[in-house]
Amino acid sequence: MNESELRQLLAAVGRGEIAPESAAVRVLDALRAAPFEDLGFARVDHHRAVRLGFPEVVFGQAKTPAQVAAIAARIAARGDSLLITRTTAEVHAAVASVVGEATWHETARIVSRPGATPPPPGHGVILVASAGTSDLPVAEEAAVTAEMMGNTVDRLYDVGVAGLHRLLGERARLAQARVLIVVAGMEGALPSVVGGLVGVPVVAVPSSVGYGANFHGLSALLGMLNTCAPGVAVVNIDNGFGAATMASRINHL
Amino acid sequence: MNESELRQLLAAVGRGEIAPESAAVRVLDALRAAPFEDLGFARVDHHRAVRLGFPEVVFGQAKTPAQVAAIAARIAARGDSLLITRTTAEVHAAVASVVGEATWHETARIVSRPGATPPPPGHGVILVASAGTSDLPVAEEAAVTAEMMGNTVDRLYDVGVAGLHRLLGERARLAQARVLIVVAGMEGALPSVVGGLVGVPVVAVPSSVGYGANFHGLSALLGMLNTCAPGVAVVNIDNGFGAATMASRINHL
Amino acid sequence: MNESELRQLLAAVGRGEIAPESAAVRVLDALRAAPFEDLGFARVDHHRAVRLGFPEVVFGQAKTPAQVAAIAARIAARGDSLLITRTTAEVHAAVASVVGEATWHETARIVSRPGATPPPPGHGVILVASAGTSDLPVAEEAAVTAEMMGNTVDRLYDVGVAGLHRLLGERARLAQARVLIVVAGMEGALPSVVGGLVGVPVVAVPSSVGYGANFHGLSALLGMLNTCAPGVAVVNIDNGFGAATMASRINHL
Amino acid sequence: MNESELRQLLAAVGRGEIAPESAAVRVLDALRAAPFEDLGFARVDHHRAVRLGFPEVVFGQAKTPAQVAAIAARIAARGDSLLITRTTAEVHAAVASVVGEATWHETARIVSRPGATPPPPGHGVILVASAGTSDLPVAEEAAVTAEMMGNTVDRLYDVGVAGLHRLLGERARLAQARVLIVVAGMEGALPSVVGGLVGVPVVAVPSSVGYGANFHGLSALLGMLNTCAPGVAVVNIDNGFGAATMASRINHL
Amino acid sequence: MNESELRQLLAAVGRGEIAPESAAVRVLDALRAAPFEDLGFARVDHHRAVRLGFPEVVFGQAKTPAQVAAIAARIAARGDSLLITRTTAEVHAAVASVVGEATWHETARIVSRPGATPPPPGHGVILVASAGTSDLPVAEEAAVTAEMMGNTVDRLYDVGVAGLHRLLGERARLAQARVLIVVAGMEGALPSVVGGLVGVPVVAVPSSVGYGANFHGLSALLGMLNTCAPGVAVVNIDNGFGAATMASRINHL
Amino acid sequence: MNESELRQLLAAVGRGEIAPESAAVRVLDALRAAPFEDLGFARVDHHRAVRLGFPEVVFGQAKTPAQVAAIAARIAARGDSLLITRTTAEVHAAVASVVGEATWHETARIVSRPGATPPPPGHGVILVASAGTSDLPVAEEAAVTAEMMGNTVDRLYDVGVAGLHRLLGERARLAQARVLIVVAGMEGALPSVVGGLVGVPVVAVPSSVGYGANFHGLSALLGMLNTCAPGVAVVNIDNGFGAATMASRINHL
Amino acid sequence: MNESELRQLLAAVGRGEIAPESAAVRVLDALRAAPFEDLGFARVDHHRAVRLGFPEVVFGQAKTPAQVAAIAARIAARGDSLLITRTTAEVHAAVASVVGEATWHETARIVSRPGATPPPPGHGVILVASAGTSDLPVAEEAAVTAEMMGNTVDRLYDVGVAGLHRLLGERARLAQARVLIVVAGMEGALPSVVGGLVGVPVVAVPSSVGYGANFHGLSALLGMLNTCAPGVAVVNIDNGFGAATMASRINHL
Amino acid sequence: MNESELRQLLAAVGRGEIAPESAAVRVLDALRAAPFEDLGFARVDHHRAVRLGFPEVVFGQAKTPAQVAAIAARIAARGDSLLITRTTAEVHAAVASVVGEATWHETARIVSRPGATPPPPGHGVILVASAGTSDLPVAEEAAVTAEMMGNTVDRLYDVGVAGLHRLLGERARLAQARVLIVVAGMEGALPSVVGGLVGVPVVAVPSSVGYGANFHGLSALLGMLNTCAPGVAVVNIDNGFGAATMASRINHL
User: Fold this and answer.
1) Would H82 disulfide with which of B45, F250, G66, H113, CB 3.0-4.6 Å?
2) Of residues C97 and D197, which shows the higher confidence score?
3) Which chain D residues are closer than 8 Å to B227 by Cβ?
4) Integer Cα distance of B55 and B117 in angstroms
C-alpha cells in the first residue's frame, strides 16, 4: 500500500464507503504483509526482484539437494529466474526433477533456468579477465551469473602479469568494456595493472589458486585490497557471483 | 558431608556415641569423596547435576564409539539425562546397544535419552534464530540441547539481514522470548540487528558457513565480538551446545 | 501510534470527526517519526531506552571532546542517564561544562551522570571477578556500568587460577550472585574454572593484560571461547561495558 | 603518435618530403616518449588524467613535506587538480608555500587545490553513509575526494545497525543515490543491510574504529567481504580515497 | 590443620576436653582459612612459598606504582623474598620508600630484595645463553630471577647460529650446566642447535628482537615450538622470568 | 680420536714408530669421521645416544613405509632402541618384516622395539595428566615415549578444570611425581591450575582437540604460553613425544 | 621488428621500393604481434624462452588433464622443453598420449620432456640440501627443475641442525657449490646455519613438513625470512620450482 | 691450520725438528682458536670476512649507543669495513667519537666507515628499483649496503605498476643489470612484473609502506612469495640490508 492508496482508502472511509474497522484491517495487513514464503527451513524472498533488481539467488553450499530443490520449486513456480551457485551435478538432477529443464554449468558449478521474462539488458559489455587457466571456475561463475542477469560478457583468460604482452596486446578489448571483473590467484597483481591501464570500474576477485603462503587465497586478497591503482574494489575469495552482482548493478545504471 | 551433618557428628562424638577415631575416618572420607567414576580413560562427573544443574554432557568428537558407549552406560545407570554432541549415527548405534533406547537427531548430530526425572522447566521461551538455511545443524544443536535441559524453544530460521523484512515481520516473536540464541555465518551481522531491536539477552553463535575470507567462521566470530549492539555475548564457532547451556542457565534463573 | 490509537483514529474518521486528509497526515507522520535527533555528525537515538531498557551510551573513543559534549548535552536535556565509556579526564571537563555535574571514574575511564528517574533495579547481585590487579580498568568498567543500569554489584578481585585457594575460599560469594562477570587476561582460564563451580550464567571478558604471545588479548579471548565449562559466553577483549549490558539484561529478566 | 599520424608520416616519406632516417628517429622517439617527469625520488605520472580520467593523486603517508611539496609543484605547474591524502597540516603549509593557495580539510586529512579546468561532472549523486561518528575521518576522505573528482555528494552519518530506524527512516535518500559508499567499523554490518535495501552498487569501506578483537579493522573488513548481500564490493581498511575513486568511475559511466 | 591435628582434636572431644561445638568451629575455620591477604585490589598469596617453593612474584606491568608498593610492603613485612618483574625505575623508587632498601636491575627491568632467609640452593649451574646482544634484557630477566631463586648462573651471550664457531667453542660450558636457558629472537634457531649438542633440559625463550615478518617474536616462538631437537620446551615471548622459574624447579629437584 | 689419543699418536711419530704421512691420514680421518650412516635419502645419526642420551627417534610422518623400514633396519642392526612416532599400522608391518618383532601402540601411534641394553632409569615418576578423554592419543604418545626412555610413568586422565574436584582429589599423586606432563586441548587451562598446585616442573602439551576458534590447537597453545603459573614450559601442539624427551631429560638429572 | 629492420623498411619506402601504406601495415602488425598462442582457456607464452631464458613452465595444480595435455602439445610442437610441476601420474599419461615420450618423476611430482636443443649449461654446481627425509618431494622438485634448466646438481639430504656433525662433515661439498638451495620444514633453521658457513647465495625453501604450530609451513617460512645470516633469500612454502629458477638464473650469469 | 700446514707440521715432528708435545699443543690450539672477541655482551665475529666475504655487520636496533660504539671500536681497530644498520643519528655520534670519522646516511638509517682495504668489486651492476617514493628508506638501505660491499648500484625509483609506462620505458636499464633488487609496499606487485620482463635474478623486498589490510607489510610479503614470475626470491619486510647481501653474493660470483 503506497501513499496514494492510503489517501484513497481514507477518503473512502470519510465518504462512508468503507467501514473504519475494515480499513484498519487493510492498513494493518499491508504493514504486516510478508513478501516471502516460509518453508520452515527457508524463507524465500520473493520481494527481492522488486527491491534489488534480481530474484533471490540460491547459495548451494551446505544445503541438502532436497532443500535446494524445494526452494527452486518455489522460485520457478513464480516464473522467476533460477540461479544456484556453488552446487553440484547431484543438486542439478534434484532440481531438474522438480522444475523440468535446468542448465548445468560444470566449470562454473552453477545451475540456471531462465525466468518467464528476461532481465533488463545491461548498457555495455562486462569483461571478465583471469590471470591463469586455473582461475576458470571462479571466472566462469562470474561470467555465467552476469549473463543470467542480462549482461553481455567478454571473456579474456590467462593474461597474468608474468607475461605482460598477453595483456597489453588486448588493451583494445579492455577499453571497450564498461566494467571489468578481474580474477587472479597467487599474488593477485592483475587488477593493479589493469586498474592503471583503463578508467572504468574494476571489480577484483581473489582466487584461492596457489599453495603455501597463499593461505587459500589470502595473499591475493590482501594484494588486491592494498592495490596502488585507483578504481578497484574487491569481493570475497573465489566469489565470482558477488563480483557479477556488483558489475551488473553498475552496468544497469 | 555438609555443615549440619558435621555438627551432628561431633555432637555424637561428644556424647560418646561415636568413637573419635571412627569420626575422624568419616570426616576424612568425606573430604576425599570423589563424586565421579573412574573408567581409566574417563572420569564421569556424577556430581555435575548437583553443582551445575545438569549432568555431564558427552563431547563426542575424537572419542571412539566404544569410549562413548562406556561413558553413556555409566550415566544411564544412574538415571541421569544422556546428551552426546558432535557425534555420528555409528556412535548412536553403539550407545543404543548398551543403554537400550536413544534418539538420533540427524541435523543436530546429537544422541539423547531422557533421564529418570525431567529437568526443572525454564521460565520462558528460548528463541533460536538463524540467518540462513545452511546454519541449521548449529541452530538445531542449540535447540535440541535447550529442549533436553527443560526449555521451551521457538525456531525462527532463514531471517538474514540481506532481506530485513523477513526479520522485522517477526518482531513479535522476538519480543515474546526470554532469551535469544542467534546463529549466523558469513558476516555474522544478525545478532547486531537483533540486539538493537529487543532488550533481552542475546547469545550469538558464529557458524562456519561461508568460504574464502570467512576463514572457517572467523569473520562471523569477529563480527559478533565487535557488535555495536548492547546485550550480546558470544560462544565458540558452531557451538550450538554452548549457546544452549548459557541460555538455559539464564532461562532457569 | 500503536494499534489501538490507529483504530480510534479511523473510527473518528468514520464518525466524520476527523477529516480524512488530516488523518492521513497523522498516520504518515507517525510512520515517518524519527525517534532520534540529528546533530549532523551524530544521530542521538532517544528511542533506545524504550526499545532496549537503557538510553544510548556514548562510545568515547575516536570522538573529539566537542562531539562528545554536544551528544551529552542532548541526552542530558531529555533527563536520560548519561554514560560515556573509553573516555578521558579532558572529555569529562568538556561534558561537565555543558551538563553541569558529572562523575569521572578514573580507573573505569567512564563519565557518568544519573538521569531524572533511576533505572529499574535488577533482581539479584552481579558479581564482577578479576584474575589479577592489572585487570582492574576492565573490571571497573563493567562494575560502574552495571551499577548505572540499576544493579547491585559485588567485586571480587585478584583471584586468578595460579592460587586457586583464593577463589575456592570465596565459593559462597560466587553462589550468592545471580550473574557473574569474569575478567581475565593472559591465558584467561578463570571463567572455565568458575563456570565449573556454579550454575548461573557467566559472562567472560578477556582482558589485554599480558605480553608476547598474548597478542593483545587474543590468548585470553581464544581461551574463553574454547572453554570446556558450560554456561559461559564471551564479549570482546577489554569490553567491560558489553559484559555489563549482557549481565544487566539477565539480571532484569 | 597515433595511427593516423603514423600513416601521414609514412606517406610523407613516400613523397620524399621527409627523409627516411628522420622519420625513423621520430617513430622511435614516440615509442620512447615518457609521459612522466623524473624528480629522482619520484616519477610524476602526467599521463594519468588522459589514461584514467583524473591526474595522479599524492599518497602523503611516509613522504617528507619537502618531497610532497616538490611533487605538488610539478602537478600544479601543469594546471592539474592537486589532491594529497593521508597528510598533515605541516605538509599543507609546505605545499601552500610553493603552489600558492591550497585547502586543508582537517577531518579528511586532505590537501586539495582545484585544477585549471574542472573535472567532468558525475551523472548522479554519491551518497556517503557512516555507521558512527567515529568513522568521520574516513567518510570525509571519501566525500572530499569524490567532490574533487566532479561528483555531487550526499552525507548520511551515524546510521549504524544497532538503531535500525535511523537508517530505515532515510530509505528515500538511499534510493536517490546512484552509488553508495558505506563506512563502518566494529562488525561492519551496515553495507550488508544497505545492500539488501537498494539495487545500486555499494562500495564498502571498513574503518579501524573499535578495539580488542577488532584487530585494527580486520573484523569490519572480513564482515564486509563475507556479506550475504548482493552488489557490494570492498576497499582497504580506512581507504576512503579508494572508495571514492571506484564510486566516481561508476558515477562517470 | 593437618591430619594428625584433626585426630588429636577429635580425641580431645571424645575425652570431653573440648566441647563439640567449639571443635566444629575450629574445623570449619581451618577449612575456611585464607592463606592470603586481601588488599581490595589484590590478594597477596602468602601461601605460595610453602606450596610452590618461592613466594609470590609481582608482575609489574599495568599496575600503578602505588599498587606495587602496597603489595611489596605486605611481602616484605613477612620477610619473604621480593621480586618485581617488568617494572620501572619509578616503581623502584616507590617500593624503596616503603620497604627500605631494594635493588634496581636496569637491563633486566627487575626490582629485588632478599628475604629474611635465603632460598635453598639449586644443585647445579643454570646457563643462560643468548643469540645476540639485543636479547640482553630478556636474558638478564632470566638470570637475575634464577639467582634470586637460589641458583648459580653462567652467562653466555651473543652466540647466534650465523657464527657457529662462537657456540661450538663453548661446548664445555654447555656440557657443565644442569639446565640451559636459551634466548633468541629473529628465527630463534639457537635452541635447536643447542638441543642437538647436549643432553640436559633446554628451556627456550623467544625474544621479540627483530622486525617485519618477525611479528613481535612470533617467528622465534614458532621456530622454537617446531624445533627438530629433543629436550626443548618453550615459554612465552620475552618471558625470561618464566624460563627461570622452570629452570629453577628443575635445578632444585 | 680424543686428546690423549692425539698425544700418543704424536709421541709415536716423534719416536719414529709411525710415519708422519700415516699419522696425518689418521688425524684427518678422525676429523672427517661421520658418526652417521648415509642411506642417500637419510643420514642415520648413530652418535646421538652418546651425545644426547637416547638414539635417534624416527619421525614417521611424510615418510614412505619403505623409507622408515630401511632406517629402522640400520638402527636395529646396531642394537639401539627403536622408536617411530606419528606412524601407522602399515609402517609397523613394514618395519616388523625387516627387524623381526616390534610393538604397535595403537592409541599412541608408535612403533617401538627395545634395544640390546635398557636405557638408564629415571630418578622419579613422570606423571602424565590429560584434561579429557579425547586427548588420549597425545597423552599416550608422551607416556609410551617416556617409558621407552627408562622412566616410570603414572597416568591421570580426564581431570579437566570444568570438574575441578577430579583433579583436587588427586593432589597426592601430583605431589609424588618428579615431573608433570599435562595435556589439554580447548582452552588449555589445566597446566595453569596444576602449576599453581605443585612445585615441580610442568611440561605443558596443547592438544588439537576442539573446533571453531580452537584453530587446530592454537587456543590451547596460546593459553599455555600465557600461563600465569610459574614453572611451566610448553611444547608444540600434539607433541607428546617432545614433552616426553624434555621430561625424561629432567628425570635423568 | 627490431630497430635495424625498422630503419631498412623506412629506407625502402624512401627509395620507393615499398608503398607507404604497405609499410604502415607492417609496422602496425609488428606492434600488434602476439608472441603467444590463444587456446581460449590458456595463452601459451612462446616468447618466454627469448625473454627469460627458459620456455613457459606449466603449473599443473587445478588444471584438468585435458587442459594440461593441450598446452603441452603446443609447447612440444615448437620443440621447446616441456616441464609440468605439481602434477600427477594421470596427467603424465594424458600428456604422453599427445607428445609421445615424457618422463614421470614420482617424488618430484614432475612431468618433463627435453626440447629439441638443450638449454645452455650453468657455470657451476647447484647444491640442493634438505633438513630431513620428509622434505624430499620439495628438494627433488628443485633438483629436477634445475637439471632441466641445464644445471649440474649435487644432492645433500637429511642434514638437519639437530645433528650438526652431519652438515659440518660436508663443508667441502657446500664450499664447492656456486649456489645453494636449502630445504627445511619445522623450524627451518638450516639456511641460517648454512648461510653462516659459506659465502655463496643461499635460496631457502620452507617446506610444509611438520604439524601443530608449524601451521603448514608458516613456522619454517617465518624462520627463514628472519634469518640472522647474510646472503639468504626465500621462496614460497614447498616451492622447489621457484628456488630452482632463482638458482638457475644465478648459475647462468 | 689447513691440511698442508698439518702435513708440514707432522713431517717436522717426524724429522725431530718439533717436539711431539709442542706439536700437540699447536694442533689443539688451532682447533680451539676462537676467531672472535668476547666483549661480555657481544662476541665480535672477526672471522666472518674470511668465511663469508664481508666483515660482521652491526644490527643497530635494540642496542644501546654505548654497546654499538664498543663493537664498532673493535671492528675499526682491525681495519675492517664498518656498517651499522637500523640505527640513529645519536648512535652515529657515539660511534664517531670512538672511531674518528664515520658517515651518517640519513634516509638509509646507516652508519658506515670504509675499511683499510676496499672490498673486491662486483662483476656487474645491481639495480635497485622501488615502487614508490615512500619506499626510499628501504631502497636506500639496500643501495648503501651494496655499495659498501663493492658493488656498482643503479637507482630506479617510483616505477610502481599503476603507471606501467614508467617501468616499461626503462627496460633498457633493467636489461643492463646483473641482479635486481625490487622494493615495493602495498600489494607488492612490482617484482612479479619485473621478473616477467628480464631473465636475471630478482631479489624482492616487501616494504611496510601502506595501511589497513597491509598489516605492516604482510600484504606485500605474501604477494612476493606467491609471485607467478620465475626467478624471484624474497627477504624480510623492510630488509634492504638482507637483499643487498644476497645481491652482492650473486654479483661477486
Assistant:
1) H113
2) C97
3) 162, 186-187
4) 12
